[in-house]
Design goal:
alpha/beta; seven-stranded mixed β-sheet; four-stranded antiparallel β-sheet; 18% strand; binds pyridoxal-5'-phosphate
């Protein structure tokens, strides 16, 4: 038994000296050590862990150094106003949903949105109208939204007040956001963007444009995912159509009243880094990503996905890899092999392994990844590949928040035809809900569950006795 389970666990991990091809963007502190001011900050982080002492400023009512830093942030991204968030993009997603919508209103939202968006929809008692995600057969993952279907929804849902889109998604895939924003604005819809993975966008022409400059009304970005900023830090940006008093209130309501200056310093630093060194640093990163992508693609049976490989993808973030191999290989086992080689990917979905890079991944680290793949014997990782099913949006009988208030019972999924789902059922991979709270289970849903059970994937929302939660009759 450990004396200090968390401390001992984390110290062990740190001691392994893994190469981080995952969040956070500062990559074990290297992001701070590349500049003089960053080194000073790095050496004094713990001392910077103070709250609103005399002489500093107040995040909930900024009129000094925080106000000045937020104005610089706003200038860099081109927003009307920008905010530092100390509770992650999760708090930004909540704040934008509460600020934009009133209880009971309709929202057009990506089916595969992050759970913080879905939780916000439940808490604000909204009616979601889902946009399907396209599943690319070649890549076998939910790569982007079905744009045609979204444009149809925009035109045919006169009661919807806004749309929520993820830009980019976990795979770095971007939809044609400019087109979507224009169409949505024409119909009077507000556009809310979860850009948790896109805080570095727009800094170089080799990257997709940032969602603020494309005209979105609210944009949330996790600073910690791709920039040199501490975990839990995020930015919220607003455009000209937003009621500032209202969003000021909700941002404050969803943030801790004891924000640490350690977090705020790192967000200020990440903004400084982007502004001062970002263009050059990201161009160098894109160069090295492209270089090693070519080398890895030359290893037989490995392939890093490019825009050209996938149908209907508007743009892709070149600073992440989506790695695939041949059919019949268990990607979880390959991922474990990489971990043994001290290569830490961001995630594996069973079909793809995702790597997130930042300018602080060195050429030496890319070489380690390349050599680990070069030396790997895929025969050791044989297993099943899982093919994702086409998505169908079931009939919504009740709104998700209504279901939350109802009693539930556990039933064998094979006996739930016609019942209302109380907890989302999400096979992982591919990670898209087959059914959400409030939707009616039918034979197609049961068949889809049958299929994913046969594939042996884990299914969130189902217990080990094949029981799922439905509302009580
Ligand atoms: C698309 C997306 N949105 C929001 C979040 C939540 O971000 P945070 O962890 O900064 O709260 C995540 C986290 O992984 C995410 O992937």
């Amino acid at each position: 038994m450990s004396k200090l389970p968390i401390v001992e666990g984390v110290m062990k991990y740190v001691g392994e000296n893994n190469k981080l091809f995952c969040m956070p963007g500062h990559k074990s502190g290297k992001g701070f050590k590349t500049t003089e001011i960053g080194r000073e900050l790095y050496n004094n982080f713990i001392e910077a862990d103070i709250t609103e002492v005399e002489g500093l400023d107040n995040l909930h009512h900024p009129d000094g150094i925080i106000k000045e830093a937020q104005e610089k942030l706003s200038d860099l991204y081109g927003s009307r106003k920008s905010y530092f968030l100390v509770n992650g993009s999760t708090s930004g997603n909540m704040a934008m949903i509460f600020s934009c919508f009133n209880e009971g209103e309709e929202v057009i939202v990506e089916r595969n949105c992050h759970r913080s968006i879905f939780n916000g929809i439940i808490m604000r008692k909204l009616k979601p109208i889902y946009i399907k995600n396209k599943i690319d057969k070649k890549i076998n993952t939910p790569l982007s939204i079905d744009e045609e279907y979204l444009l149809y929804l925009i035109k045919n849902n006169r009661n919807a007040k806004g749309i929520i889109i993820t830009y980019p998604n976990y795979y770095g895939v971007c939809c044609n956001l400019k087109l979507i924003i224009n169409e949505a604005h024409k119909q009077g819809l507000m556009v809310l963007i979860d850009s948790a993975h896109g805080a570095h966008f727009g800094i170089s022409s080799g990257l997709p444009e940032n969602a603020v400059r494309l005209g979105a009304d609210y944009v949330v970005m996790s600073a910690h995912k791709t920039l040199p900023s501490l975990t839990q830090t995020a930015y919220l940006h607003i455009g000209n159509n937003v009621d500032v008093e209202k969003i000021d209130f909700y941002v404050s309501a969803f943030l801790s009243t004891s924000p640490s200056y350690m977090l705020m310093c790192s967000m200020d630093y990440a903004r400084y880094f982007l502004e001062d060194k970002g263009k050059e640093a990201y161009e160098q990163l894109i160069y090295i990503c492209n270089l090693y992508k070519k080398k890895i693609n030359n290893i037989s049976d490995f392939h890093i996905i490019s825009k050209e490989d996938v149908m209907d993808v508007y743009d892709m973030d070149l600073t992440r890899y989506v790695l695939q191999t041949r059919v019949g290989i268990n990607m979880y086992k390959l991922s474990e092999y990489l971990r043994d080689k001290k290569v830490q990917p961001e995630m594996c979905d069973g079909v793809n392994i995702i790597f997130i890079f930042s300018p602080f991944n060195t050429a030496e680290e890319f070489k380690i990844l390349y050599e680990a793949l070069l030396k790997c014997n895929l025969e050791n990782f044989q297993g099943e590949s899982i093919l994702a099913l086409e998505q169908k949006i079931p009939h919504m009988e009740l709104r998700p928040w209504e279901v939350l208030l109802m009693a539930s019972e556990l039933k064998d999924y094979r006996e739930t035809n016609g019942r209302i789902c109380k907890e989302a059922i999400v096979p992982y991979p591919p990670g898209i809900p087959i059914i959400q709270q409030g939707e009616t289970i039918d034979v197609d849903i049961i068949k889809a569950i049958d299929y994913y059970i046969k594939c042996g994937v884990s299914i969130l929302g189902m217990d080990d006795k094949f029981k799922i939660k439905v509302t009580r009759d």
